Amino acid sequence: MRKKPVIRVRQLGIEGVAPKAQIEAPGGWGSMTSRERGDWLAGENRHYPYVDRGPLPPHLLYWIAGLLESHPFRFAKTKPENPHHYTTRREWGDVGSAVYNEVLTVIRDYGETQWFGGKPWRQLKVNGYYYWSWYAVCVEEVQVMNRKPVESAGTYDLMAEDYDSAFSDPESLAENEHVVYELIGDTTGLNLLDIGCGTGLFLDHNQHDPMLYTGIDPSGGMLNQLIAKHPDYAYRVRALPFEEYVGEQESFDLALCLFGTPAYIRKEYLEFIPELVKPGGRWIVMFLRDGYVPVAYERTGVALDYMGGVFADLPGTVTEYHNYVIVDGTR
Question: Which terminus of the chain has a lower count of CB atoms within 10 Å, N or C?
Answer without folding.
Answer: N
